[in-house]
C-alpha cells in the first residue's frame, strides 16, 4: 500500500521513490551543482482542499536560479510545466494534510569536469507531509553566527544552489550546539543578512524593517508576502541595510520563510527583544499569513493554487 510521498517525479516521469536513484558520478552529487525550491501546500479541512502557496513565484525563482547557475533544462520545462508537474505529483500522492514540496534542477551529467555549461540538467521533485518546522507559538532564542552569509560574488546569494547550503548548515549547527534555536548571519562586511534558511524582519518604533535584497539575502517569497501584508495595513516599512545593534535593540523581530512560516524571535545574543513576549505586529502578521495560506479567508486568492483531487482519472496515491 502506498503512503503520501511515495510517488516522486524523476527523469521525466512519476515513479516510486525507491526507483529514483542517481549514479555516484552525477555532477550534482560531486559538486552540489543544482538549485532547488522549498514550497508548502496547506490543507484546508473545512473545504477539503489542498492549496499550494505561491506556486508561480516558486517556479519562477527556480528557473531564475537555474539561469544564474547555467543549469539548462529541456526547453519544454517551462514555468507552467513545472507548476503542472507539482500539482499532478500532489494529486497522485493523495495528500490530505500539510505538505512540503522540494523540486530540484540538477546537473545529471556524469563528468568530473568542474564546469557548469554544457552538462545535462534534469528535474526531480519529491514531497513529504510537513507540519510546523519550528514552534511558531513561542519566541525563538537566536544568536548572531560566526559564519558569514555567502557573498553574492562568491556563490550567487539570489539563487538557491544546493551546494551553498553548507553555509546555512554550518551556521545552524553552531547555533544548536550552543543551545540556541537559530542563527542570524551577517554579510561579509558585517551587516545583518538573514537566518540560515529564512529572512529576518524587525520592528522599531512601529516601523517594519527588513534587510535589502543587495545584502546577500535570498529574496524570500514569504518575505514578499510579509511586505504585502504590511503595506495592506498601512504600516511604515523600510527595506534597507540593517546594523547588528538595530537588531539587538528592536521592539520585535521575526523570521519569514516557507519552512519557518512566521517565527517570532524573543532573544538575540542573550538580549531580550521588546518585553520578551511575541510582539503585536508579529502576532498580527503571523495570523494573517497563516489564514491566507490555508485559505481560511478569501483574500489574496492569487497566492493559492488549489490542487485537483485527481488528475486524468488517476486515483490519488494508487498509480
Ligand atoms: N533565505 C534562505 C537562505 C533560504 O533558504 C530561504 C528558504 N527558501 C529563505 C531565505 C526564505 O525564502 P522563502 O520565503 O522563499 O521560503
Topology:
Blueprint: E1 7-10, E2 13-16, H1 27-31, E3 34-36, E4 39-44, E5 49-53, H2 55-68, H3 79-93, E6 99-107, E7 121-129, E8 140-144, H4 165-177, E9 182-186, E10 192-195, E11 199-204, E12 207-211, H5 221-232, E13 237-240, H6 244-248, E14 252-257, E15 261-268, E16 271-272, H7 280-294, E17 304-306
Parallel strand pairs: 8-9, 8-15, 12-13
Antiparallel strand pairs: 1-2, 1-7, 3-6, 4-5, 4-6, 5-17, 6-7, 9-10, 11-12, 11-14, 14-15, 15-16
Helix pairs in contact: 2-3
4'-deoxy-4'-aminopyridoxal-5'-phosphate binds next to helix 5 and strand 14.
Brief write-up:
The chain is an alpha+beta fold. It is built from seven helices and 17 strands. It is globular and about 50 Å long.
What does this entry look like structurally?
The chain has 319 residues and is an alpha+beta fold. The protein folds into two domains: 7-131, 2-Layer Sandwich (D-amino Acid Aminotransferase, Chain A, domain 1), CATH 3.30.470.10; 140-293, D-amino Acid Aminotransferase, Chain A, domain 2. Helices cover 25% and strands 28% of the residues. The chain is built from seven helices and 17 strands. The strands form two sheets. Strands 8, 9, 10, 11, 12, 13, 14, 15 and 16 form a nine-stranded mixed β-sheet that branches. Strands 1, 2, 3, 4, 5, 6, 7 and 17 form an eight-stranded antiparallel β-sheet that branches. Helix 2 crosses helix 3. The longest helix is centred in the first third of the chain and has 15 residues, at 79-93. The termini are close together. Mean pLDDT is 95; it is low at 315-319. Bound molecules: 4'-deoxy-4'-aminopyridoxal-5'-phosphate (PMP). The site of 4'-deoxy-4'-aminopyridoxal-5'-phosphate (PMP) has 14 residues, from helix 5 and strand 14. 4'-deoxy-4'-aminopyridoxal-5'-phosphate is lined by residues 38, 168, 194, 197-199, 218, 220-223, 256-258.
Amino acid at each position: 500500500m502506498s503512503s503520501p510521498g511515495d510517488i516522486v517525479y524523476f527523469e521525466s516521469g512519476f515513479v516510486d521513490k525507491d526507483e529514483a536513484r542517481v549514479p555516484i558520478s552525477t555532477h550534482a552529487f560531486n559538486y552540489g551543482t543544482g538549485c532547488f525550491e522549498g514550497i508548502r501546500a496547506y490543507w484546508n479541512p473545512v473545504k477539503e482542499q489542498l492549496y499550494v502557496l505561491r506556486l508561480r513565484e516558486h517556479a519562477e525563482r527556480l528557473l531564475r536560479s537555474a539561469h544564474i547557475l547555467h543549469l539548462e533544462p529541456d526547453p519544454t520545462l517551462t514555468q507552467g510545466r513545472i507548476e503542472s508537474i507539482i500539482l499532478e505529483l500532489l494529486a497522485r500522492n493523495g495528500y490530505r494534510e500539510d505538505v512540503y514540496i522540494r523540486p530540484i534542477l540538477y546537473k545529471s551529467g556524469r563528468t568530473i569536469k568542474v564546469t557548469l555549461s554544457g552538462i545535462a540538467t534534469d528535474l526531480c521533485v519529491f514531497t513529504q507531509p510537513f507540519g510546523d518546522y519550528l514552534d511558531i507559538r513561542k519566541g525563538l532564542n537566536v544568536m548572531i553566527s560566526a559564519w558569514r552569509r555567502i557573498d553574492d560574488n562568491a556563490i550567487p546569494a539570489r539563487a538557491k544552489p544546493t551546494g551553498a547550503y553548507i553555509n546555512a548548515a554550518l551556521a545552524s549547527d553552531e547555533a544548536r550546539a550552543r543551545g540556541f534555536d537559530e542563527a542570524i548571519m551577517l554579510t561579509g562586511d558585517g551587516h545583518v543578512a538573514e537566518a540560515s534558511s529564512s529572512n529576518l524582519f524587525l520592528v522599531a518604533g512601529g516601523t517594519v524593517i527588513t534587510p535589502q535584497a543587495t545584502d546577500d539575502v535570498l529574496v524570500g517569497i514569504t518575505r514578499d508576502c510579509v511586505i504585502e501584508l504590511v503595506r495592506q495595513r498601512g504600516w511604515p516599512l523600510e527595506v534597507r541595510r540593517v546594523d547588528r545593534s538595530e537588531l539587538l535593540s528592536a521592539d520585535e523581530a521575526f523570521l519569514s520563510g516557507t519552512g519557518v512560516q512566521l517565527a517570532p524571535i524573543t532573544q538575540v545574543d542573550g538580549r531580550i527583544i521588546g518585553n520578551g513576549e511575541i510582539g503585536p505586529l508579529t502576532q498580527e502578521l503571523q495570523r494573517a499569513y497563516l489564514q491566507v495560506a490555508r485559505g481560511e479567508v478569501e483574500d489574496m486568492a492569487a497566492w493559492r493554487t488549489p490542487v485537483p483531487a485527481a488528475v486524468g482519472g488517476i486515483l490519488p496515491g494508487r498509480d
